[in-house]
Amino acid sequence: MQNQQQGIINPKYCAPHNVDLAIVRKVLTLTDTFSVTDVNSKMIFNLSASLLTLHNHRVLVDAAGQPVVTLRRKMTTTHDRWQVFRGESMEMKDLIFSVKRSSFFQLKTKLDVFLANNTREEVCDFKVKGSWFERSCVVYAGESLTIVAQMNKKHTAQSIAFGKDNFMVTVYPNIDHAFIVALILILDEINQDKRQSQN
């Protein structure tokens, strides 16, 4: 399990120490765009969606603009299933992991994460528990209480003035931070849908 965790998307996104990331969501544009930086404001990842692909799939790219993973929603499922593929592929042979809501009715969002080789999906490989109202979430290893990453919202005067949502994410040692970023983006998409359905 440990080796698997070390490079779910790519071993180069693992570090032997905690990694703090800032995820900035700009919400004033026609579509939400996300940028992910380190504590020194150095760009690591970017995610933007065109209106055409807004709900079907999004591509996470690295600082050089190279596709890291494609996030795709399966449209016909009741549990909000998302699939994450290597690069720009959407073929099953390039599937890295899939995510679904643990149950249909939830006050706090809980997501089950299954790596591609876990085809039976009897026990999840990771679990995401997020409070939609508090904009915070914790990622656990499987059904355990072992935390591998956590996120909380960061308010600054600038973020309020410029219509940006800032999230601080701490990724624990030897955990793939591209994987964690992809999970948080999926959590946000599911929460956006939840908010729209309640309006």
TrEMBL record:
Q: Which residues cross the membrane?
A: none
| InterPro entries assigned to the protein according to its UniProt record, in alphabetical order | LOR (IPR007612), LOR_sf (IPR038595), Tubby-like_C (IPR025659)
Q: Which Pfam families match?
A: LOR
Q: Which family does it belong to?
A: Belongs to the LOR family.
Q: What is the protein name given in its UniProt record?
A: Protein LURP-one-related 15
